[in-house]
Amino acid sequence: TVGVLSRSIDSKIRAISDRLVTTYADRPIADLTREIARELTDGIDSDTEIFLVTSASGQIIAGNLSQAPAQDRTTLGQLLNVEVLRNGIPSSARLIVRALPQGGTLYVGRDSSEQRSIGELVRHALEAALALALVLVVTGGYVFRQLVESRINQIRRTAHAIEAGDLNQRIPVSGDDEFARLAHDVNRMLDRIEQLMNGVRQVSNAIAHDLRTPLTRVRTRLDASLRHNATAAGLSDAARTAIDEIDGLITVFNKLLQIAEAESGLRTETFAEVDCGRIIQNMVDLY
């Protein structure tokens, strides 16, 4: 905004100086002074425009500057930032110095105090915006970090509780963000693990029950044979009976291993298609 305003003012200063020099190059200096007086009293930018005409000797002929700004021949035609006395009041100005064919010098410019004020205002606004943005970034980063740490700590606490043996623990779920979806996935995994653990316990209990009865029976028969029938024939019968019971236990173990391998997918190559319709028909015929 400030740059656009500066370029606009520079273009206007050059245009006015070019018009005055071109129009009054072959006319008396008095015509130029009357035009400058008209420019200063027409009510258009009268509070900011600067005009000054000096003679070849440096005497002020017309304009609203109390004295001519210091300048040399190398600055002719260039836009300058200088300090001037406009109507006896010090101010900053942006002006151009042009040589007149009549031998004098023409100064055309604008008071840049307002422009500088706008620039200062924009600069202060940018500094305030930068400071506010920095505060928001730092505050936002801190709040975001606290939120992330809070959600991660919930997951860690749940993991520690499960590690300690409490499989009933679950991660609290709130909202619908990535952490909530992660918590849903982890909770589903924990549910599945708990189901598998319960299944293992049930299988373990079933195995223990299925093994205790035949083992107790084998022990009882062997003990009875030793106590009441300690003959060679009796011991042989007891041994054969024990072998039959142990073979039964081995069969149970093999079936359990087959079930475990089937559930884990290790024996899928031995699977075969089954005619379910025939099985249903046999069940109907049986019952």
Shape: rod-shaped
Kindly provide the radius of gyration, computed on alpha-carbon positions and rounded to a whole number of angstroms.
53 Å
Could you say how many structural domains there are in total? 3
Q: How would you classify the helix and strand content by structural class?
A: alpha+beta
Helix content: 55-70%
What is the mean pLDDT? 81
In short:
The chain has 287 residues and is of the alpha+beta class. Helices cover 63% and strands 13% of the residues.
What does this structure look like?
By secondary structure, the protein is α+β, with helices and mostly antiparallel strands. The chain has three domains: 2-111, PAS domain (Beta-Lactamase, 2-Layer Sandwich), CATH 3.30.450.20; 114-169; 178-267, Signal transduction histidine kinase, dimerisation/phosphotransfer (DHp) domain (Helix Hairpins, Orthogonal Bundle), CATH 1.10.287. The chain contains six helices and five strands, in the order H-H-E-E-E-E-E-H-H-H-H. A hairpin with a 2-residue loop joins strand 3 and strand 4. Helix 4 packs antiparallel against helix 5. 11% of the residues are buried. It catalyses: ATP + protein L-histidine = ADP + protein N-phospho-L-histidine. It comes from marine sediment metagenome. Keywords: Kinase, Phosphoprotein, Transferase, Two-component regulatory system. Its EC number is 2.7.13.3.
